[in-house]
Design goal:
It comes from Gelidibacter salicanalis. This is 3-oxoacyl-ACP synthase. The chain has 153 residues and is of the alpha+beta class. 49% of the residues lie in helices and 20% in strands. The chain has two domains: 6-78; 94-152, no CATH class.
């Protein structure tokens, strides 16, 4: 089914903005670490110098892993067809439940659209796994709470 939901477009746009901001932040960290490493190279030799370089290299590896993770998140986000609507919860679905509202996309936290609150979640999160494949009217028990899927967009 085709859908031209302004709500889905807005949630998708907020997820894209969130991921782009994280990507930019990670690249900024990489540049700062690289500059610090260059600065360390120019400083005096000795144990303190070597420890400083080792710490910076560990930090660069950590940030490199974060970059790989955010690139994978960007790839997953690009797979979402916001014009598609299904009867079953899947990637790209907006799920309205008796407890909360969810956008199945990437883990990006809580967004507000108009006066409604939505949680952008990955399909691989525990709640995402519990919702995936369900249809309107299905009951879900998650963390000892029962809720009903009221609508899917």
């Amino acid at each position: 089914m085709k859908s031209n939901s302004p709500l889905k477009q807005e949630l998708y746009a907020q997820c894209v903005d969130f991921v782009k901001a994280r990507y930019t932040n990670i690249h900024t960290q990489i540049r700062e670490i690289q500059a610090a490493l260059t600065s360390e190279t120019k400083s005096s030799a000795g144990d303190k110098h070597e420890t400083g370089r080792a710490m910076l290299q560990l930090e660069r590896e950590k940030v490199g892993q974060q970059l790989a993770e955010i690139e994978k998140v960007m790839e997953n986000l690009s797979k979402i067809d916001i014009t598609k609507s299904t009867e079953l919860v899947s990637l790209g679905s907006i799920v309205f439940t008796s407890q909360s509202n969810y956008f199945i996309a990437v883990s990006a936290g809580q967004f507000r659209v108009n006066s409604d609150s939505f949680y952008a979640i990955s399909p691989n999160t525990p709640i995402g796994l519990a919702l995936t494949g369900k249809k309107e009217g299905d009951q879900i028990i998650f963390r000892d709470q029962q809720f009903i899927i009221e609508a899917i967009e």
